[in-house]
Amino acid sequence: MNIFFTYIFAIVLSFFLPKNNEWEYLFNGKNLDGWKIKIRGHKLGDNFNNTFKVKDGTLKVSYENYDSFDDKFGHIFFTNKKYKNYHLSLEYKFSGNHLKGAPGWSIKNSGVMLHCQDPETMLIEQDFPVSAETQLLGGLGKNKRTTANICTPGTDVDINSKKAKAHCINSTSKTYHEDDWVKIEVIVYSDSLIHHVIDNDTVLTYTNIRVGGDEVPSNYINKIGNPLKEGYISLQSEGHPVEFRNIKIKTNE
């Protein structure tokens, strides 16, 4: 479908989806109740080196206790329920210095992982959950570096009715060079349609989310091609300190 019919499709869907206009906060600003941590090389629930913590009302990715990154890609999952049709809103802010040993591409780089596999099913050495990632990037002081992009760990998506050829596809957002709070929203219609929104502007739309791509874990091989209709939400740690706040959701189911 072209972009016009994509928006028409979203409008039609909205008429058939029941609405819950109340925001539910996924993060209470006090502790990590309802969240589970999975860091590469460690068992589920092991918050290695206190990577994820709560400070001053924010959910913080911290590397204060690290000497080097050593491929400790991490994710913190909200596991109280899976989500299918929803409107997610949060704010993020990069801070501090990129950790020694982390990949160069991970400077001011994090993500919100949508439709995640159950963290209980992640392999011990798995870098990223099968998911559709809303990639969060900060500017580096010069040149364009958009945020609210789409990356596809273990997944494929379509953009303008064609399979995305690259692992990450840029949005049309502006570049946020300063380490200020940035508000991002995602509007999800199961596996059919996802919008990325910044400052009330839709900066990226994609469709047909399914298992695929180049990073499918061995225990997901038999699911290649299956639609990702629902899943968990997680936040990412991949080498640069970042904070999250006002993490809230409206469900349409």
UniProtKB/TrEMBL annotation:
InterPro entries to which the protein is assigned, alphabetical:
AL/BT2_dom
Kindly provide the name given to this protein in its UniProt entry. Answer: 3-keto-alpha-glucoside-1,2-lyase/3-keto-2-hydroxy-glucal hydratase domain-containing protein
Which GO terms of the molecular function aspect are on file?
hydrolase activity
Domain 3-keto-alpha-glucoside-1,2-lyase/3-keto-2-hydroxy-glucal hydratase, by residue range, is 22-250
